[in-house]
């Protein structure tokens, strides 16, 4: 509901500042024709100035999309990451969490390169994102040390200095993809899964560390899932991949902290509708269960991206070696009566 709060009469135009106090406390400025007589010129100028200041202030207020209950990139636009240089792994299409991270980082003033496996570049949509955000795309299979070395060296050159933040958003399970039951896993495939989903994080950190590519007080973030701690049977060998990933982040967090005050963390994200997510058997039910169990509901990709941005920023300089839950409260729930009601 829109309530009229203030109305200024100005050159035959009435500027009504309507305050939309509906659901999420967002604001709107409404300009409506008026029948009232005009004001004197000095008063007009003052009214115009005040209206513009008010309009400017209101654009900083985050608002929520009514339909999707998610934030828009522009809603959180501050220059929190101005001057920061980054490398973002894992944007495949506009559903990818890394895609949202790239959009948010760009809107917050960061410069970065985008990367993905060469095969993913062929069928994904990364070109479009690179073009839109003015980011260079550098192909890199994250299991290859040589390709990682090339990626970070090129990124430093393109961005004009050492790297302030890196997002690792990589996951793929061969046994899950080929629908092999956990109790009948192919161990060669399992090794490949660990290499892609977890060892790639260690390799990435090692190349950054040995090549001294990170700036002081930089930030490295990997994305993980709570199946590292609890059993979700259909998540298969990805559970062990995530446990390994989280452990690598803690261990490298120590070494990077000692060497250069660089922090290393993982974000444990809610189920999210992405290519990797939907590859898991029964994902829809999985998603619904998480949504019902969490008092805030599942955290959307855009909110995960905002959380990543805070970890890349200087506001979180002493947060390191942590596995941080971003899951609407899911990880601390025992039972939600909502689940019993249905
Ligand atoms: N979707 C979810 O429900 C969910 C929940 C928690 C955590 N995560 C994690 O978030 C991260 C991002 O996944 P997403 O859900 O956005 O899905 P996604 O499919 O969009 O992203 C996975 C990415 O990994 C890339 N990748 C695979 N093999 C690679 C390799 N060898 N080298 C470089 N890149 C490679 C893919 O090309 C893809 O871009 C993953 O680590 C995933 O496990 C996802």
From TrEMBL:
It comes from the Bacteria. Keywords: Fatty acid biosynthesis, Fatty acid metabolism, Lipid biosynthesis, Lipid metabolism, Oxidoreductase. The keyword Lipid metabolism applies. The keyword Oxidoreductase applies. GO terms for biological process: fatty acid biosynthetic process. It is an enzyme of class 1 (oxidoreductase). Pathway: Lipid metabolism; fatty acid biosynthesis. Pfam families: adh_short_C2. Its EC number is 1.3.1.9. PANTHER family: ENOYL-[ACYL-CARRIER-PROTEIN] REDUCTASE, ENOYL-[ACYL-CARRIER-PROTEIN] REDUCTASE [NADH], CHLOROPLASTIC. Belongs to the short-chain dehydrogenases/reductases (SDR) family. FabI subfamily. This is enoyl-[acyl-carrier-protein] reductase (NADH). It comes from Neolewinella agarilytica.
């Amino acid at each position: 509901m829109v309530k009229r709060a203030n109305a200024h009469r100005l050159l035959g135009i009435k500027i009504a500042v309507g305050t939309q106090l509906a659901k999420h406390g967002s604001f709107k400025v409404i300009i409506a024709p008026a029948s009232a007589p005009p004001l004197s010129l000095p008063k007009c100028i003052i009214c115009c100035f005040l209206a513009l200041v008010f309009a400017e202030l209101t654009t900083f207020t985050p608002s929520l999309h009514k339909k999707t209950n998610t934030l828009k990139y522009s809603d959180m636009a501050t220059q929190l990451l101005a001057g920061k240089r980054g490398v973002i792994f894992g944007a495949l299409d506009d559903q990818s969490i890394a895609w949202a991270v790239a959009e948010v980082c760009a809107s917050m003033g960061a410069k970065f390169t985008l990367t993905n496996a060469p095969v993913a570049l062929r069928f994904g949509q990364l070109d479009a994102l690179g073009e839109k955000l003015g980011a260079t795309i550098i192909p890199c299979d994250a299991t290859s040390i040589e390709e990682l070395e090339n990626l970070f060296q090129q990124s430093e050159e393109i961005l004009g200095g050492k790297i302030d933040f890196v997002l690792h958003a990589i996951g793929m399970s061969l046994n899950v993809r080929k629908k092999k039951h956990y109790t009948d896993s192919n161990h060669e495939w399992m090794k490949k899964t660990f290499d892609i989903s977890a060892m790639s994080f260690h390799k990435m950190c090692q190349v950054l560390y040995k090549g001294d590519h990170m700036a002081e007080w930089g930030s490295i973030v990997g994305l993980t899932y709570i199946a590292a701690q609890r059993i979700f049977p259909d998540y298969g060998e990805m559970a062990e991949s995530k446990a390994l990933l989280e452990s690598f982040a803690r261990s490298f967090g120590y070494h990077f902290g000692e060497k250069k005050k660089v922090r290393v963390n993982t974000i444990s994200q809610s189920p999210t509708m992405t290519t990797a997510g939907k590859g898991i058997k029964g994902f829809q039910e999985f998603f619904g269960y998480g949504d019902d169990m969490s008092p805030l509901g599942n955290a959307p990709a855009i909110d995960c991206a905002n959380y990543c941005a805070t970890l890349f920023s200087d506001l979180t300089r002493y947060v390191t070696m942590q596995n941080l839950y971003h899951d609407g409260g899911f990880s601390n729930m025992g039972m939600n009566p909502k689940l019993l009601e249905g």
